[in-house]
Amino acid sequence: MRRLRLLSLGFVCLSILLVTTNAYFPYLETNKMFFISCDDKVLDVFYGNIFNNARVITYPPKPFNTFNQIWTATPTGNGGHKLATSKDTNYFLSIASDGSSIVVHTQTTFYNQVWKLESIGINPLAFYIKTMDGTKALTKGTDSEVMLSDAQPANSNQIWMFSQMAPVPTPNYWNNCPCFPWGIPPANGNTPGKVATGRLYLIKNSFTNKVLDITAGIALNNNPLTIWPQKATTEANNQIWRVTLQSNTGNTYKIASILPGTYLLTVSSNSIVIYEDLRNDWQNNRYQEWILEVNDPIQYTYTIKMAHGGKYLEVRIR
Question: Is the pLDDT assigned to residue 18 strictly greater than 50?
Answer without folding.
Answer: no
